[in-house]
Structure formats: structure tokens, C-alpha cells
Design brief:
Blueprint: H1 2-13, E1 18-27, E2 30-39, E3 48-53, H2 74-84, E4 88-92, H3 112-129, E5 134-140, H4 142-154, E6 158-162, H5 169-180, H6 183-197, H7 210-213, H8 218-224, H9 229-234, E7 240-245, H10 253-262, E8 267-271, H11 285-291, H12 301-318
Amino acid sequence: MKKLLLTLLLLTILLPQLHAGEVALKTAQGMLYGTHEVPESRDVDLLPVVLILSGSGPTDRDGNSSLLPGKNNSLKYLGEALAKNGIASLRYDKRGIGKSAASVMRVEDLRFRTYIEDAKDWVDFLKSEKRYSGIFIAGHSEGSLIGMVAARHTGVDGFISVAGAGRPAPDLIVNQVKNQFSPDLVKETEQIIDALRRGKEVKSPSPVLGALFRESIQPYLMSWFKYDPVKEISTLQCPVLIVQGTTDLQVSVEDAEMLQEGNKKAQLHVIEGMNHVLKDVPEDPQRQQASYSDPSLPVSGELIRGVSDFVWSVQKDKL
């Protein structure tokens, strides 16, 4: 306990210099690249690290999507802020994204498990450094589901879900289609999903649904549909923090409550006014849309405090 109190005291009076270095991970399917954010100060003995996993689609290590103009830098700012609180982090470009683009697999060969295995390999990388007092996984959006499965298999010290869905992927897809398309297309979507869940591929979906259910991606969807976030989080034995913003238009507070219901020991931290890209933004659609491409907006200060407090609390309990 005295050692922890001394450490926390030093953290409050010292502003550690920060070092962000490029790191590479060799896998059987090519090289993956990331950013290792490390406080350079060695005046403290404790140095926890958080592996940060990005969300779905072409989202890079910094939280930016190639489908959107501009950058929001949400995960970049998260890593930098944690470093200022004495916590190292590692965030990486997913397979086929950013600098890891060359490691892309054929769409037909890609499986949800591939992303889980990549996360596990990065945890092994952090363990091999042998300088961390604790290793944590923080998964944002789809990265939450990837992270919780990886956490179960790697024995990390804690898991953090940030804006992670509590509903299985099929439910999320149906809800999205309901918000955009006709009842006939909703019915077709439900029929396609039912077939995929039974392991049967569907030929020639309606053109409007083609991008979502094209034949080349159906094996990936079938592999993704096997995972239920509530069931997965229930298997975790490590400390768990669930963080959710109230102005998130993609994932709801209800999702976070579902996750907590699956793991009753988990801490639930609801942040008033935080949206899906971790910025303090009201529900106004125009301001929401703008925030996804606005690097001038910082990430929520309450998010940084909540994640930092969780990490240091787990470290305290280990002593």
C-alpha cells in the first residue's frame, strides 16, 4: 500500500514526458503496425498498459474512418491522455487498414476470429516486453466484442468496453435496416440473417442489400453472428469497466446495461453528453455528424478520468 501511495503521489507531481513509437507485429498473414504511447518517466515502478481496439469498418488506430472526411482522432487522444496519467497504451491499424493495409486477406477468407487472434497476438507482444505491471484491453464499438473474447483467452488484468453493443450483430443489422428501408427489405434481411445463422449462404440478395450481404462477405458474417456480447462478457473473471455516453446515436445506454446484466461484477460508467466518437456533443444531428470529422474537439474528460481511475484501482488491488 505504501508503494502504491508513493506512486500515485509521484504521478500527481510529475508530468511525464511522452514517447509515441511505431511498432510492428509479424503475423502469418503479414505485418500489423501500431503506435506505442509510453510515459518516458521512470520515477515510478508501476507502468500499466492499455491495448486499444478500434471499431468496425475501415477505422484506423487513431479512430478515423476512410469513409468520412477529416479526422476525429478519438483513439489517438485517448492514448495520449492516458500517457499523461502515467498509463502506457498501444493502438494499431487493423488488418487491411492504414499502414496494415498490406496484411489484408481475401474477403472470402476473413473471419471475425481473425481480429480476435490479432488482438491476442498484440497482448502477447506486450507481455514479451516484461516492463508492464498490468495489461488491460479497451475495445471501442465493435472492438468491445473483439476485446472481451481476447481478454478471456489472454488472462489480462482488466477489460474496458467503450461504446460497445450489448446486442448480437444480427439484432444490430435488423435495427439499422428498419431505420432506412421498407418493410419488405426488413423481411428479406431477417430471412437472410436466419439462413446465415444456420450456416447457409444466400444467393443474389436484393441490390439494395447487396453491399451488406454480398456473397463474398457472408462467411465473415456467419462467423460474427456466433458471438453474443452478453454471453461473452459473462465469462470474464477479470475486473470489467463498461463506459457509455448518453448522446451516442449508434450504441445506447441500454446496450451498456445489457452488458452489465451479463457481468454483474462489472462497473458501469454512464457519461452524460458523450457521443460515439467519445466527444462531448449534444444529440443535434448536425453537430453529431460534424464531430466525426473534427479533430479540434477533445475526448471526454470524464472518459479519461474513468478509464484512468479504473486502471489504477485494479493496480492497487494487485499489491
